[in-house]
Amino acid sequence: xTKIQTVTNAIINQGILPLYYNDDETVTxxxxxxxxxxxxxxxxxxxRGEAALSNFTKMIEIRNAEMQEMLLGIGTIKNLQQxxxxxxxxxxxFISPGFVVEVAEFLIPKDILYSPxxxxxxxxxxxxxxxxxxxxxxxxxxxxxxxxxxIKDVFPNxxxxxxxxxxxxxxxxxxxxKAGVSAVGMGSKLVSKELMxxxxxxxxxxxxxxxxxxxxxxx
Length: 219
Prior knowledge:
Belongs to the KHG/KDPG aldolase family. With 219 residues, the chain is an alpha/beta fold. It is built from ten helices and eight strands. An eight-stranded parallel sheet has the order 7-6-5-4-3-2-1-8, sandwiched between helices. It is globular.
């Protein structure tokens, strides 16, 4: 099995891709541990602060020592230089807010999953023609489930994951899966700034377990 397929399967099997960023290295690692305890085996860390690369490098180190089953992806990749830096750091997959052709050309021949954010059929077509197989619908709350329902038959060979505005309720999650997505990306609705500030790792773990249970019940 290819590495791209392995990562795709892991995300689809859990049905959710948690994503977060925190400046503090210790908080970053403890959130990773709480997600792992909840049953998560693929996580997106977003490259949104000055400490992102050093924190991610530490995440790789801790993953290798404590949780070998965890796949660590990097998000908010907007140019080739970022992709090269995180590839060297050992990222298992890459996610962008938009489609960056240079990033696709760099990663896909290396059998590394690249999931770009797309919000129009034109962008999705460009990504598919570049070899992308896993599309991030972004921003999900702006596009809505109706958009997914209306395009899914046009792209039968692609997997879709909305990110942005997806919340933790059964109703919201179910509406996306009924529309045809393969997974949902979930950031601040799951790993909120408040929980991170309070270092409330137990609640992050418990809320993640609840979401996983909802998704497994829907499958």
